[in-house]
UniProtKB/TrEMBL annotation:
It comes from Cryptotermes secundus. GO terms for molecular function: DNA-binding transcription factor binding; metal ion binding; transcription coactivator activity. Pfam families: LIM (PF00412). The keyword Zinc applies. GO terms for biological process: positive regulation of transcription by RNA polymerase II. One of its GO terms (cellular component) is nucleus. It comes from the Eukaryota. Residues 1-51, 53-115 form the LIM zinc-binding domain. Keywords: LIM domain, Metal-binding, Repeat, Zinc. The lineage of its organism: Eukaryota, Metazoa, Ecdysozoa, Arthropoda, Hexapoda. InterPro entries: LMO_RBTN_TF, Znf_LIM. This is LIM domain only protein 3. SUPFAM superfamilies: Glucocorticoid receptor-like (DNA-binding domain).
Length: 153
């Protein structure tokens, strides 16, 4: 049997264990961590006291033990995973889009596309009349009354 020296004390091989998962820390090459009078393996130390990075929406630290949402390489707190235009919270099955590193709901994404296309290709009055002339009057009226939202693109 061997004795291990850690934290200025001697330990039996079987006695030096992680305070959370009870894995043996006497294995060759294993590293132990201490925090708040706990002896921990690397995995449990990072899980309890590490962080997974920063939230892409609020830029605050995300603790390693916290549940997160991911979109491509971005990580979000659960409460921050919402449309960054209208603050709509997403439910399971909702579609969302990652546009210029911002999460958008389907409505705001499509609205942004429409306004972006209009900015690059402003339609002429004649073109709009041709596209709307076959529509019933009530439909055209409803289209004209939609609220206009401006975006910085």
């Amino acid at each position: 049997r061997f004795l291990l020296k850690a934290l200025d004390r001697f330990w039996h091989e079987d006695c030096l264990k992680c305070g959370c998962c009870d894995c043996r820390l006497g294995e060759v090459g294993s590293t132990l961590y201490t925090k708040a009078d706990l002896i921990l393996c690397r995995r449990d130390y990072l899980r309890l006291f590490g962080n997974t990075g920063y939230c892409a929406a609020c830029s605050k630290v995300i603790p390693a033990f916290e549940m997160v949402m991911r979109a491509r390489n971005n990580v979000y707190h659960l409460e921050c995973f919402a449309c960054q235009q209208c603050n709509h919270r997403f439910c399971v099955g909702d579609r969302f889009y990652l546009c210029e590193n911002k999460i958008l709901c389907e409505y705001d994404y499509e609205e942004r596309l429409v306004f972006a296309n209009m900015a690059y290709n402003p339609p002429s009055i004649a073109h709009i009349k041709r596209q709307t002339s076959h529509l019933p009057v009530s439909h055209v009226t409803a289209f004209k009354q939609l609220p206009v939202r401006l975006f910085n693109l």
